[in-house]
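job 3f2a | input accepted
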Amino acid sequence: MSSIKSQIVYDYIEKKIMLEELKPGSKIPSESILCNELNVSRVSVRSGIERLISIGLLRKEKFGGTYVSDHNSGNYLRVLTPIFIHNIDYIEMLELRQALDALAVELCMSHLNQEVINELKRLLKDMEDFKEDEDFFTLDRKFHLTISKYSFNSLIHNISEIMWEVLEKTSRHQYHIIGNDLRIVEHKQILDAMINEDRDLAKLYSVRHLARTINEIKNEK
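job 3f2a | predicted structure (221 res):
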């Protein structure tokens, strides 16, 4: 039972960090506050916090409480970035994205609300306005990472962030081989299916989006 209670603490704090309700450098609520809010014991609170410290999301200061790590976004996975940069082919990375993006879409739909929809619509509108601009890459990245963020699966979100970071550092020239008009159409298809609560169609559009990209890159080789 104590392990279940500590998982409640872990999930609660992790979610607040992902949603940036607890920002880097900020102090987390005290043990007594967490006990009251989550209806758990101090032992469970401490256990959950220790797990978050062990993966680098939190840091403990002597006599000063516990704080969100300054670089909290996937700290415990950042060691993978150099491995991806030096050992992962662009096509292989897109194939991994294809699988993760579809799962992120499915999980995000379980948490979809008007605020998330509006954020995705705004990013899509910005893509249309900047489709001939270098900023399109950044907007594309934000669109997909917004979906992974609201999947509330930190592993998917952190790996997605790493892949986009690697893409920016190593394969951006390949990214721009493909025009952005079809990217906009495909993003709109994904979003419309999500809004219409058609889970299977949203996942299908997500898979097709990356499949087309992979095929076009292969044809350019």
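job 3f2a | Residues 99 and 207 are 7 Å apart (CA to CA).
job 3f2a | closed
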